Structures are given as C-alpha cells and as structure tokens.
Amino acid sequence: MLSSLSPALTLLLPILWPLLLALGLLAAPLRQTSAALAITAALPALTLALAFPDLLLPMPALLIGGSGLLLDATGRMFLFGGALLWLLAGLLNPAATDERRSGLWFLLAMAGGLWMTLAADLPTFLAATAVGGYALYGLLASQGRVPFLVPLLVLSDLLLFELMLLLAPTAADLSFSALTTAWAAGEAVPLLLGLLVLGFGVKAGVLGVHLWLTPALRQAAPGNALALLAFVLAAGPLGWLRLLPLGAVTWTGAGDWLFGIGTATLAIAALLALIQTRQRLALANTLVALTGLWLALLGAALAAPSLATELASALPLAIVLAGLSLGALLIFQPPASAAAATEADTADSTGTDSPDQPAAHARWGGLTWTDPIWAAAAGLLALLLAVLTLDGAALAAAADRPLAFWLPAAVALAAGRALWLGLRGATMAAELGQLETAAAADASEPQADGIVVADARRPWVMAAIALLAAALGTLLFWLPWLAALILLLALALGLAADPLVRRLPGLPEGRLAAAEARLTAG
Amino acid sequence: MNGTFWLPMLVLGSSLLPGLLIFFLAEDRSGIRTLLNLAGAVAKLLAVLWMLWGVYNGVAYEARLPFLPGLDLVLRVGPLSLLFVVLSTGLWLLTTIYAIGYLERSPHRSRFFGFFSLCVTATVGVAMAGNLLTFVLFYELLTLATYPLVVHRGSEAARQAGQVYLAHTLFGGALLLAGTVWLYTLTGTLEFTPRGFVSHLGETHRGSLIAIFALTVVGVGVKAALVPLHSWLPRAMVAPAPVSALLHAVAVVKAGAFGVVRLLYDVFGAEFAASLGVTGPLAVVAGATILYGSLRALYQDDLKRRLAFSTVSQVAYITLGVAIAGPLATIGGLVHLVHQGVMKITLFFCAGNLAETLGIHKVSEMCGVGRRMPWTMAAFTVGAFGMIGLPPVAGFVTKWYLGIGALEAGQDWAVYVLAGSSLLNAAYFLPILHVAWFRPPPPAWPHEHDFGPRETAWALLLPPVVTAILSVAVGLFAAAPFSPLEWATLIAEREFYLP
Fold first, then answer.
1. pTM for the whole thing?
2. Among residues A212, A245, A278, which one ends one of the domains?
3. A174 and A284 part of one domain
4. Residues of B with CB below 8 A from A60's CB?
5. Angle subtended by helix axes B303-324 and B327-358, to nearest 10
6. Beta bridge partners of A286
7. Cis before B228 (ω within 30)
8. Which residues of B touch chain A, with CB atoms under 8 Å apart?
9. CB 3.0–4.6 Å: which of B26, B138, B442, B488 could bond B334 by disulfide?
C-alpha cells in the first residue's frame, strides 16, 4: 500500500512538511498549531527512509534542467541519520520551534538539510546547501557569534560552482550519475579534486577550512548542536560520496594525495582534541578527525577500485552511525549532583558542601543514583564510536596501507578525551557560561571552566563505571576486544593529559585547576 | 489596419493617454489619478498578454507609420521585444502601486505620474521598435520623460543630478543618432533583421562599420551605465524610490542594455560583429564594468548608492553575455534582462520602504531593522541572495549560463570575472543582512512613521514581496515551459541557428 503512493508525494513531503510548518508560523491564525506540530517536522523524512523502496522523481522544470529527487541506498542512510538528528534537535530545543524567529530558521535549515540528502543532481544539491547553510547560520547566530561560517559558505559555494562549470561540458546533464561518469572518463585533474575536497570540506570540517566548526559547536545549545551535526553530515561527506567516481577509476596519485590529506587532518585534530579542556571542543575536534578518516578512506578507495565497491556500500552507514554516536556524546551531559548545583547558584567561593547534604556526598563518592547510568551510557557510546571507526580500519587495512590501524585508533583517542571531559562532570548550564557569569560577579575568583565537581572522587568513579560498561559490552556482543583496549588507553590518556595540558604554554592555565583548588581548599 | 496594427498601438496608448490626462488633473484629485494609473497599467498588461498569446500562436504584429521618405516608424513585436515589453509592463504595474503608496503625502503628484506614464510609454516603444530610427526616437523620448522624474524633488542635489543625467544621456543620444544616420547612408535601410543587415558591406566599409558600432554602442552604453559612462546613475539616486526602481530595473538601464542587444543581433549580427573584431573589446568593457561597479559598491554607506553601483555591475552581465556571442552566453545575457529586473526592483522597493517608514538611508542605520520590518528585510534577503548568485534565486541561473557560455566560447577569463563579482556581491550584501537581522536595533529610528499594526503601508509592502517571490519562482522553475529562460533560449536559437 505504501508503495502505491506516488513518488512525487513521498519524495516531496519530507522537504515540504517543514516548509509548510514554517509558513504556518508566519500566519498568525496558524501559529499555535504550527508550533505544536513542529516536533513532527522530521517525521515524513524518517518514514521515507525506513518504509519506502528506492524512488526517483524527475523534475525537469527545476533550476537548470534535468533535476530531480532521488532515494537510493546512499541517500537513504543519510536521510535516516539526518531525520533522526533533526527530530532529536527539535525535541531538545523546544524554544527553536516555539519562538517564531528561531522556529523559522530551524525549519528552513531542516528543509534544506533533508533536501540535500534527496537531491539527484548538483544544482539542486547546491540550492539545498544554500538554504540549509544560511538558515543554520541564522539559527546559530541568534544565540551568539558564529565567526567564519558565512565567508566559508560563500567560498564553498564558489568552489562547487566552479567544479560544476568544469565538469558540465563533458557530462550528459548535471545529475550526479552523469557528472561522475564524465569525470571517470577524464583525467584525475588536481584542480577538480582540490575543488571537490575544499568545496565540500568547508562543511565537512577538513582542516584549514574548518574554522567555523569549533566555535559554532562550542557554544551551541544541545538541539542546535545536533542540527549543526546533521548539516555537516549531509553537506560534506555526502557530497564526496555522490561525486567521486569510486570503483570506476584507478587514480593512484590522486588517491594517495587524498589519503595523505585525510591522515593529516585526522592526526592534527586528534592531537588538538587531546589537549582540550572543554568537552565540546574535544568533540568538535573529534568530528574533524572523523572527517579526516573518511577522506583518507575515500582516497584509498580511489586508488584501489576493489576496495571502492566495498566502501561505497559500507561507508554511508559508518558515517551516519558515527555521526549519531557523536551526536549522542554531544548532547550527553551527566547532570551535576544536587549539591554542586546549589554551589553553582550561590557561587560559594569556599567550596564547602551545603550543610544539608554532606553525608550523602561522602558516602557514595559524590555520586547520585543517576550517575552510574550516565557513566555506563557514556562508556557504551564512546565504545560505539571507537568500534565504528575500527570497521573503517578493517577496510583500510584491506588496501594494505601503513597506518591503517592507527587512523581509527586516533579517532578513538579523541573520543576518549571527550568522554573523559564529559565524565568530569561538565553540566550544560556551565558550558553555556552561566557559571562564569555568576563567578564573574566576584572579580578575584578565577572563573570556573564549567566543571562543577562536587567531590574530587566523582570523576574517577564515573570513569571506572564507564570502563566496566565498555568491557561488558565487548564481552556480551563479541565486539573486538581491541576497541575496549583503545578506550582504556584513551581514558588513561585523557586523565594523564590534564596535568600536561595545564603546563602547556599559551593555554588557559587553570579553570580546571581553579575549580579543583577550590574544592581541595574547602 | 487590423488587429496586428492596433494592438501595439494600444500597448503604447494605454499609458500615453492616462499620462496626458493626469497632467491636467488637480493635485487633490487623487482618486481619479489612482484610477487612471491603475486602469492604464492593467489595460497595458492585458494587451501585452493578448499579444503574448498571439505571438505564441504565430501572429506577426506590426504597426507601420510613414515618417520620412523611405523611412517608416515601425512597431514590430517578436519574442525579443515581447521579453522586454512583458517585463516592463508587469513591473510597471507593481511600481505604480508602490508609487501611489510612497508619494501619499508628497506634492506634485500629477506632474509625477504624468511623466511616469510617459516614461513607460517610451520604454515599451523602445522595446517594440522595429527599426533603428523608431528605436532612437523612443530612446530620446525616454530621456526627456525621465528627466523630470529625476529632478522631481526640486532640491539642489536633484537639480545637479538632473544636469549630469541630461548631459550624459543627450550626449549618448547624439552619438547614437550620428551613428544611425551614417549607417543609413551606407545601407539604405534601418529595419531590424535577425543576423543583422550590414554583413554585405563587410569588405568594402569595414572601417566605417567599426566606427558606427563604436558610436552607437557608446550611445546606448550611456543608458546601460557601462564604465566610464555610468556616473549619472549613482547621482540619480536622489530621486524618490519609485523612480530609482523604475530607472534601474525597468526602464532606462534596461533600454540601454536592450539597445546593445538590438545592435549586436539585429543590426550587425553576432557573427559579423565578431568578424569585425568589436565584440572582444565590448566584452572587456563589460567585464571591467562588472568588477568596477562591485568594487565601488563596497565603499558606499548610502543604501541606494550601493544598489546603484550594484546595478552598474549587474547590467553589464547582459552586455557581457551578448558580447561573448556564443549561444549559451547569449541566453545568459538575455535572461538576465528579466532576472536582474525582478531582483533589483525588489531591492529598491525595500530601500524605499526603509526610507519611507523609518527614515533609514544608510547601511549603518540598518542595525536590527529585521525585527522592525521583517517582511521587507526578508524580501531584501531574497534579492541579495539573487545578486550573489545563490540558488534557488534567479541570479544563479544567469551566472550558470554566462559561465558555461564563456567556457563554450573559449573566453575563460569571463569565468574569473563572474567569480570575482560573486565574491564582491557577497562582500557588500551579506554584511547588510547580518547587521539587519542579528544586531540589536537602536533606541530610536531616524524618522519613524506609524503605519499601525503592520510594518508599513500595504502599497509599500506588497510589491517587494511579490517581486521577491517572483525572483525565487523564476529561478526555481527556470527550466519549466514559458519561463524567462525558455524564452531567452528561443530567442537565442532564432539568432544563432535558424536560417
């Protein structure tokens, strides 16, 4: 029955529904209804990804002709991931859909993001990216400065436009399949590859043009962070997957170059993640590291067509799942324990526990009953991320490349650092700087890093629980033991890095140190 | 004298007659004036649509009036003229509505609307001209009809702007006339012919033809605001916003660009002009204009002046497209007549709204205006995105055809010019958008008028919203039948492929 619905309706609805809701927000009589329904905005997309077969809707009247909407295996993965992320983003950020202005940005960004995954040709993809990207800017900018995003969007649009101009003369039309075929028939022109890598790399977070990603992710509210992640996945790696002629060419030189760039991105980003003191920044760098990994794998596939077929089917799933687990880590914030929250409110500088609850703290190492659950969940999430990247390692190893093992391991290290920082007890409120605002009232007090630790033992206990959960997961599901080992190392590194990080010149000395000093003094 | 004669005459008359009548209306008869204006605009639109249907079905409209021995005044309607006529008529209706709202409390409205109507009469005359003589005639009438609009406010700045305007346009007109006369003495005819009517003189009068080309192109280039003939345009911004909108989107600059198109296709013929070696320099001048206009726009704080320099740059896209003289580039240039028209008029309508409602004339005064006037700024955003060339707004389609056309014709340098222009457009439009949407508003606007619960008057709000929607529709559905792009493709085919 489902398949009897016309392709037009099923492919258009995921994009039109958010747009219609946005229009509803504009009209006063419909505003309430639209705001209430806005939570469902991503549901048509999710349904399409899960319940419908591959579909094609040619729309020759659109833009510069030959355009259309397409649901194929690759797109389905990204549609699923994107829809899920957008759904969660809407749930987590009710203000986005309540308040008229950010609701509009949110719904427009969603429409653009979902359209990207369904685009069958490059001009439509670019149109979707323009709508989604600038609407995303609107969403993020209403909460704070988002430097670099707009100039980089402009640059990216320009680079991709030039790419389209260069590929078009030899292509039958501008659909992805035609462009890929035309490119495969030609040479491995460095200019084209450069335009491709940088053009989509701006959104994916390739090192050098990723400058917008870190500040944007750092200050975004949880829902907006997920929206950002959804945009990154759809606008970056998906573009590479659509346009690279994987399996049809053996471009060893070009493949090696891409592998090198990917590896470099990964290595640098992983290092950067390790020295972070804020969880969000560590996660941002983990995302950049993931991008580097994917780029390296694509490079390996360009050089070895046999690898390409395997990769072409496995990589979309790996990317989406990695993105989802990263998203989960992004919004994962174990709450501060009750006493810590009280401490934050009163900005008490001595760090003593409030008189009413010292006993509870001392007995359980500062944990409340929800903390072990959070810790276990965090451990499993980070494990998932590590495992997924290891799968990529298996594929890369098939290409007989050196460093094949260490690439995903680097990603796992970065994720481990982020996990450690999360377990240290960062709270979302603190991340958003409310604690700093309170502390700033007392000028002599160095500002807290957003680490609110009621008891210095708490993070250790949480880390132990996370590790236990990871080990248990390994045993129960027969996942590679290697993943658990890497996670252990990552946590250890994360732990060991703290004192090192504080000693590195140029880095902010000690919000961490200041918070801990407060506690040990009190 | 049958339908094919009277319909073009009706199109002319539907604005000429109301215009002449409005001159005699007393200042306070606003009801009748509005009625005449709108009736004329609607009548014109209906006549044009009828003509559109006719041309689509193969009817040839021609109105021929004897003028001089051997020379007639000819109005002939084909796809190219219809493109310009439909654009002018449609946008004139919207501008009339806008002007009625804008000049609500202003003096000398009868004078204004009288010349307003004459202006659009001259414009459609330019569009429908069937030979160079008729073209020149209506071209000069356009100058004379628009001068009073430029100096309408009567201030010292307006007078000076009018002087500069007149000096430039009369100079251009003189050159155009000289070129036309010279051409007539060589060829004995001035009828617009597809592929041109001078190629048979190629061997014998090469030098003369090049000189004639230079004269006539400079003549129309003044109105088309090609550098260095453009300086009248920013100065003319002292005129009221409806005039700026009309001048910059509908009438004057488009008439100039249209003149370039006519000269290149229906007088000289694209291939013949290329063989004369004149299209190359013209393309370079256009490219220089594109970059110069955008560079100057970066440094303007006055909003309308910034938009004026943007127009200088954008209209040169049309010249670039036709001067590159390949089929795809031609399509790009021709379709930009429409695209630039709808996008630019949106921006000018919005600028007028800001000035009329809040007293804002400068970009630096626009902080937070998106909160106060969201619909106006939304329309402005769409127009700005179109100027930058972002899909799905119409400017993307033009950019694509110009780019791919330049590559096809082997003129790769033009791609760099377009890239540079896009970057510059982003540089002077995106900061405006950021400031308007994301900066906090000032405690008080420079000069706020209260329009009740709405952000501004209906007559001021509706036109930019309509043209913004059109800008997106025309871009998003560019490949649909009956779109401006399909139309431009048809015109280009007739020029390049049909015998």
1. 0.86
2. A245
3. no
4. 479
5. 170
6. none
7. yes
8. 385, 388-392, 396-397, 399-401, 403-404, 407-408, 415, 419, 422-423, 426, 430, 434, 437-438, 475-481, 483, 485
9. B488
